[in-house]
């Protein structure tokens, strides 16, 4: 983009760290897909497809996932409390249940108005509800004083990295492949990303030897490595970590005095095995070996954007701090105070997520049916997509374990690589661009997340309804492989 002398700002004099940051999930392919979507909306019949499938981003409700009725009914009353003055209409004509009205009244009593600021770290009653949820989930105590409400997990990550990274030599161990929020944020902070490769041959699990090697290399280069990021279940890989992997990371973090940043936003999206939180495992290890792990610092994050909730646009989330110095926590509180508070309606949605209707409640039957339908639909589409990949020449993909993604590897010919180079693209970018142009399906090249040298991948969600789009990927792939054979 050409600079101009008539404006004070140009692309050469803005913050260079912002300029260098990359975020492939909403990069060139996503921009192109939105252009196609706009053309289709205007009646353009020249494209070889009739719809755009945004499989590039975990945005469930953009892809027709329906909101959970209980959540939206409560939110409607929070936004317009005057409706509570007409309980007969709500209950007898609009399908609201008594527990919807009760929850709305309780939340309004806690926050006053969703149009008012809350405490900087979140409304106390909502933080207590989160702490209660954590106690039920993990079997260990939690304190609302250690809970910080955030505008989605991304805001929490931003807060934590700002506090942890003190200078350009501050380093964070980040899994590769990774969700590009981490590398982009570290770039903006001018801090050091210390990549460690996940093991594709072991369902994208962590490999302690690889973590150690990356850590030691960074230290030898003068990097002050301060924290390790774990995304579990994984994004973009869909992996769900085993207990042994989690224990190994905690033991290593304890030995090396590393803060653990546990990104656990997909904790309800587990198809194989069970989700094990880092908090639960840390507390279990502290119980097994008193005094050994008491100094471990853990920050775990969760969000309403994923799981069966899928309320990305409401920007609700939280993080819990374990083992942090109280003086550091005070600085974290100060940092979140600068942004005043997380969206209060998003905070209320977090409360609904961690405290949904329970068996016997009037809204439970419908909630359970909707929740189960979303979960089963995700699993069915993940299975269908995985089966399709198994049929495709040169494509390898592990069975779907969790989250909302599959991250297949693709093996492309030298002819395809040469065609990509002629366009100034990597082979995986070239493949994904041709896929979008032929089918309207937008995925993200593996290079946008990081991948082992010499390998190629792409990430796709399995959120889109139906399976027709899966068939279009198979057809495209067969034609692409023939063309560049």
Strand order of the largest sheet: 2-8-7-6-5-3-4
Strand-residue proportion: 5-15%
Helix fraction by DSSP (H/I, runs of at least 4): 40-55%
Number of strands: 14
N- and C-termini, Cα separation: 36 Å
User: What is the 3D shape?
Assistant: globular
Cofactor: pyridoxal 5'-phosphate
Protein name: Glutamate pyruvate transaminase
Family: Belongs to the class-I pyridoxal-phosphate-dependent aminotransferase family. Alanine aminotransferase subfamily.
InterPro entries: ALAT1/2-like, Aminotransferase_I/II_large, PyrdxlP-dep_Trfase, PyrdxlP-dep_Trfase_major, PyrdxlP-dep_Trfase_small
Please tell me about this protein's structure.
The protein has 485 residues and is α/β, with parallel strands linked by helices. Helices cover 44% and strands 12% of the residues. The chain is built from 17 helices and 14 strands. The chain has helices at 16-20, 28-41, 69-79, 87-92, 98-111, 124-138, 152-164, 181-189, 208-220, 243-256, 278-288, 326-338, 344-354, 364-391, 414-422, 427-439, 468-483, and strands spanning 53-54, 147-150, 170-176, 192-197, 224-231, 259-263, 298-303, 317-322, 395-396, 405-406, 409-410, 441-442, 444-445, 458-461. The chain has a seven-stranded mixed beta sheet with strand order 2-8-7-6-5-3-4, with helices on both faces. Strands 10-14-13 form a three-stranded antiparallel beta sheet. Strand 3, helix 8 and strand 4 form a beta-alpha-beta unit. Helix 6 (124-138) runs parallel beside helix 13 and helix 7 (152-164) packs parallel to helix 8 (181-189). The two termini are 36 Å apart. The model has no long low-confidence stretch (mean pLDDT 90).
């Amino acid at each position: 983009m050409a600079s101009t002398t008539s404006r004070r700002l140009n692309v050469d004099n803005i913050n260079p760290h912002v300029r260098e940051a990359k975020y492939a999930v909403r990069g060139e392919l996503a921009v192109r897909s939105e252009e196609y979507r706009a053309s289709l909306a205007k009646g353009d019949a020249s494209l070889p497809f009739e719809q755009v499938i945004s499989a590039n981003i975990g945005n469930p409700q953009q892809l027709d996932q329906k909101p959970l009725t209980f959540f939206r009914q409560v939110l409607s009353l929070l936004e317009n409390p005057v409706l509570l003055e007409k309980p007969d209409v709500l209950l007898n004509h609009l399908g609201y249940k008594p527990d919807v009205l009760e929850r709305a009244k309780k939340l309004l009593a806690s926050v006053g108005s969703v149009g008012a600021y809350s405490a900087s770290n979140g409304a106390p009653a909502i933080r207590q509800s989160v702490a209660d949820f954590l106690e039920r989930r993990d079997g260990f105590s939690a304190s609302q004083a250690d809970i910080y409400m955030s505008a989605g997990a991304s805001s929490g990550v931003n807060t934590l990295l700002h506090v942890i990274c003190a200078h350009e030599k501050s380093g964070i161990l980040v899994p590769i492949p990774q969700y590009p929020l981490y590398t982009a944020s570290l770039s903006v902070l001018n801090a050091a990303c210390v990549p460690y490769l996940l093991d594709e041959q072991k369902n994208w699990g962590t490999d302690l030897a690889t973590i150690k090697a990356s850590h030691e290399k960074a230290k030898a280069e003068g990097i002050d490595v301060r924290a390790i990021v774990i995304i579990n279940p994984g994004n973009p890989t869909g992996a769900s970590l085993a207990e042994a992997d989690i224990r190994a990371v905690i033991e290593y973090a304890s030995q090396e005095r590393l803060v653990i940043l546990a990104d656990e936003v997909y904790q309800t999206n587990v198809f194989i095995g069970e989700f094990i939180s880092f908090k639960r495992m840390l507390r279990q290890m502290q119980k097994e070996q008193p005094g050994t792990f008491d100094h471990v610092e853990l920050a775990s994050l969760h969000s309403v954007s994923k799981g069966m909730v899928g309320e990305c646009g409401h920007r609700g989330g939280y993080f819990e701090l374990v083992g942090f110095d109280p003086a550091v926590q005070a600085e974290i509180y100060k940092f979140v105070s600068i942004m005043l508070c997380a969206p209060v309606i998003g905070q209320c949605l977090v409360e609904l997520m961690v405290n949904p209707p329970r068996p016997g409640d009037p809204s439970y039957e419908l909630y359970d049916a909707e929740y189960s339908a979303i979960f089963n639909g995700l699993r069915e589409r993940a299975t269908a997509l995985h089966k399709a990949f198994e049929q495709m020449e040169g494509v390898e993909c592990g069975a779907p374990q969790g989250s909302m993604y599959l991250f297949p590897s693709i093996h492309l010919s030298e002819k395809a690589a040469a065609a990509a180079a002629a366009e100034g693209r990597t082979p995986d970018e070239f493949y994904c661009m041709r896929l979008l142009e032929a089918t309207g399906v937008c995925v993200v090249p593996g290079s946008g997340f990081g991948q082992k040298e010499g390998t190629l991948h792409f990430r796709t969600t399995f959120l889109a309804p139906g399976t027709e789009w899966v068939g279009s990927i198979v057809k495209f792939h067969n034609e692409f492989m023939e063309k560049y054979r």
